[in-house]
Amino acid sequence: MKRLSLAMAATASLAFPAMAQDDTDALVHFKALKPEVAQQMAQAALIACRDAGYQVGVTVVDRFGLPQVFLRDQYAGAHVYETSRRKAWTAVSFRSSTTDLAASTAAGQVSSGIRHLSEALPLGGGLVVYEGGGSVVAGIGVSGAPGPDLDDVCAEAGIAAIEDQIAF
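Below the sequence we write its predicted structure tokens.
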């Protein structure tokens, strides 16, 4: 009897690791940026804009659109908190750069209704941050440069600063 119990216990213990990898697993596993890495990305974007002569705000959101970091340069306008946050939120929500979304949601386009959502801001400066395996780990939004295309350049500089850390 004791031998049978040990055999059953051993068999059961071998079955559980296989179940954990099964598609029926009740848990979802994902990757997210550590706050220190999000801070580095925001700082690099802010410095890139400052070096170009622009005073901006930078927001990094997690994969769910919740803010992790906000930095505002000393002379950036009051609007940069809201706009940088909404750009980052929009990028992760729609898994698209806000520059691309600006084009695909223009008047007359099939997706133009997105512009009626209260948080969506399809205006350049918001980018999705992917880890090396292609999973979304964050979003970054920059606001305050003289044009959305320049906000994009600063956001790209922020991502470039942490690329080696997230390219698993």
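The mean pLDDT is 89.
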